[in-house]
Structure formats: structure tokens, C-alpha cells
Automatic annotation (TrEMBL):
<feature type="transmembrane region" description="Helical">
    <location>
        <begin position="145"/>
        <end position="169"/>
    </location>
</feature>
<dbReference type="Pfam" id="PF19300">
    <property type="entry name" value="BPD_transp_1_N"/>
</dbReference>
<keyword id="KW-1003">Cell membrane</keyword>
<protein>
    <submittedName>
        <fullName>ABC transporter permease</fullName>
    </submittedName>
</protein>
<feature type="domain" description="ABC transmembrane type-1">
    <location>
        <begin position="110"/>
        <end position="314"/>
    </location>
</feature>
<dbReference type="InterPro" id="IPR000515">
    <property type="entry name" value="MetI-like"/>
</dbReference>
<keyword id="KW-1133">Transmembrane helix</keyword>
<dbReference type="InterPro" id="IPR045621">
    <property type="entry name" value="BPD_transp_1_N"/>
</dbReference>
<comment type="similarity">
    <text>Belongs to the binding-protein-dependent transport system permease family.</text>
</comment>
<feature type="transmembrane region" description="Helical">
    <location>
        <begin position="9"/>
        <end position="30"/>
    </location>
</feature>
<keyword id="KW-0472">Membrane</keyword>
<dbReference type="Pfam" id="PF00528">
    <property type="entry name" value="BPD_transp_1"/>
</dbReference>
<feature type="transmembrane region" description="Helical">
    <location>
        <begin position="248"/>
        <end position="272"/>
    </location>
</feature>
<keyword id="KW-0812">Transmembrane</keyword>
<feature type="transmembrane region" description="Helical">
    <location>
        <begin position="189"/>
        <end position="206"/>
    </location>
</feature>
<feature type="transmembrane region" description="Helical">
    <location>
        <begin position="116"/>
        <end position="138"/>
    </location>
</feature>
<keyword id="KW-0813">Transport</keyword>
Length: 325
């Protein structure tokens, strides 16, 4: 198992290097350093002197990947890639185009993102699994049919509708919660209640329908018939046998998504005014701050690789028969 994890980590480093190179190439294929300077300063009628000054202040006055005028290792190190993108490989996120420390912003904004994402993830998983088990328990009944119809309807609605409808009903009509905002500590619960509820509702249809299919597939296997022949109650069969044997595909989607919780929700954080990493990324895209966007893309790739490794490890915990050589 240890050798497998080390191999996956080595592959992950290669993937991160590839993501870094690809992201760098895509960004500078869209905008040149001169275009970035004009966007940062503001307006197209900017003097070349001001552009060159901005580029020198932000280390964009160098060649992109290879400096033919330099000598020795400086040909590769005295470049925009080495000064702006290569430090990401050692988790040095550098400075944004407006001069702020990106690493500090990530540490500050990680808390609000987790405050929203963790309850949504945990409660959403619990609600979806319980709802799917309820439908399987009453399978081939009107309740099961009605539940499947509800899942299809919820699955067909955009997540943006849940946000707008939730703000209209609970914030404007009932006035139970505020429209948007965020506070630290226990005072922030009333600001997080609606985003968490919306997050659970938006994933209920798709995930419950998927889990129901997994559980129904397990219900037709021999070990379930054996358990029933031994006189076990249907509830015991579902919780002790079916749920446990269906954990592998569930873990594939859930455990690998845990590290991505740190990235926050782009849509929810923007609509509800939560100062997390999701809204930070949206603001960077709107401002065309490519340093922040590159850092967030790299961080997302890193966390996704970590999530896949955690998912593989969780397989061995859920099913001791699974082994990785």
C-alpha cells in the first residue's frame, strides 16, 4: 500500500507540472503581458512607458519560457514562467497583480469556505443516503415511485433556481434569514442556514437517485437472499449489508470531493456574499487577475489529486479485500 501511495504521489507531481505548464500557456495565449498591463492600469489609451513600468513592477518584463539573451541557468530562470508559475510547485502562490499576498488571502478565506462547504457536504450526504434507503425500503410502492419523480424533478432544475427561490421565500417573504453576508463564530449561523439548505436541496435529486440505483443493484445479490433466509429484518439487511457493500462507489464520489471543499462554491459564495475562495476566484476572473486564477487552478488540481489518493485508501477501509500493490 505504501509503495502504491508513493507511486501515485510521483504521478501527481508530474500531473501538477503538466497542469502548471498548460495553464501558463493558455493564459498567455489569450493575453500578452502588454494586454494585462492595459487591463490593470485601465483603458486602451495607456502610454507605453506606463505599460513597461507596470510590467517591470510585476515581473512581466521578461521572456515567457526561455531568455535567449541570458547565459547559463539564467536562460531558464530569468523568465516569467520561473518567477510567476514555477513557485507554485513549492506552494508559493506569490503576489496578485494588484500587489496582495495570494497565500494570505487563501488562508483567510479558507475558513468561510469550509464553514459553508462542510455542513453542506456532511448533511447532504446523510440526507441523500437516508432518502435513497427509504425509497429502497418501500421499493415498488407508490412512495418509491413518487420519490423517483421528485428526484427527477429536482435533478432537472438548475442550482441557480434554488438560490433565487430560497432567497425570495426565506429571506424576502418569511424573513427567517438574511439575503447575504457572513459573520465569524456562532453569529454566522443565520447567514449560513440558507446556503446550506440550498446546497442540500440542489444535490438531493441526483445523488439520491444514484444511491437508490446502487442499493437496488445490491438487493438482488445472493448475500442479501442469504441474510433474509437467516431471518434478518429488512431494515437490518439494508443497513448492515446493503449499505456497507455499496460503500465503494459512494466513496469514489464523496472522499475524492473532500479536498475540493477547500475551494469553496463559486456560485453560492458569490450570490450569498460569503468571502470564501469561491467568490475570491470569481472576483479574480472578473478583474482578469491571472496570478490569482493560475494559483486557484493549481490549488484545485493539487487537492483533487489528494482526494483521489484518499479515495483509494478509503477503499481498503470499507472493504478489506481491496488491495493495491
Amino acid at each position: 500500500m505504501l509503495s502504491y501511495i508513493l507511486r501515485r504521489l510521483a504521478y501527481g507531481v508530474l500531473v501538477l507540472i503538466g497542469v502548471n505548464l498548460l495553464t501558463f500557456a493558455l493564459f498567455f495565449a489569450v493575453n500578452t503581458p502588454d494586454d494585462m498591463a492595459r487591463l490593470a492600469i485601465g483603458g486602451q489609451r495607456v502610454s507605453q512607458v506606463a505599460i513597461e513600468k507596470w510590467k517591470a513592477e510585476h515581473d512581466y518584463d521578461k521572456p515567457l519560457l526561455f531568455n535567449a539573451q541570458a547565459h547559463g541557468p539564467a536562460r531558464w530562470t530569468d523568465t516569467i514562467f520561473y518567477t510567476r508559475s514555477a513557485p507554485l510547485l513549492r506552494l508559493d502562490f506569490g503576489m496578485s497583480d494588484d500587489g496582495k499576498d495570494i497565500g494570505h488571502q487563501i488562508r483567510v478565506r479558507m475558513g468561510p469556505s469550509l464553514a459553508l462547504a462542510l455542513p453542506t457536504f456532511v448533511l447532504g450526504l446523510y440526507v441523500c443516503v437516508c432518502f435513497a434507503l427509504l425509497l429502497v425500503y418501500f421499493r415498488a410502492t407508490p412512495l418509491d415511485f413518487s420519490g423517483v419523480v421528485v428526484c427527477v424533478v429536482l435533478l432537472s432544475i438548475s442550482s441557480l433556481f434554488y438560490i433565487i427561490a430560497g432567497q425570495w421565500l426565506f429571506a424576502k417573504i418569511l424573513r427567517w434569514v438574511p439575503y447575504s453576508g457572513f459573520l465569524d463564530g456562532s453569529d454566522g449561523l443565520r447567514f449560513l442556514a440558507l446556503p446550506v439548505l440550498v446546497g442540500i436541496g440542489s444535490r438531493l435529486g441526483g445523488e439520491s437517485r444514484f444511491y437508490r440505483s446502487l442499493f437496488l443493484e445490491e438487493m438482488g445479490k445472493d448475500y442479501v437472499r442469504t441474510a433474509r433466509a437467516k431471518g434478518l429484518a429488512e431494515r437490518t439487511v439494508l443497513l448492515r449489508h446493503v449499505l456497507r457493500n455499496a460503500m465503494l462507489p459512494i466513496l469514489t464520489g464523496t472522499v475524492s470531493a473532500i479536498p475540493l471543499l477547500f475551494m469553496g462554491s463559486l456560485i453560492s459564495e458569490s450570490f450569498f456574499g460569503i468571502p470564501g475562495l469561491g467568490s475570491y476566484t470569481i472576483d479574480a476572473i472578473n478583474a482578469q487577475d491571472f496570478s490569482i486564477v493560475r494559483a486557484m487552478v493549481f490549488l484545485g488540481s493539487l487537492l483533487y489529486i489528494v482526494g483521489l489518493i484518499l479515495a483509494d485508501i478509503s477503499y481498503t477501509l470499507a472493504d478489506p479485500r481491496v488491495r493495491f500493490d
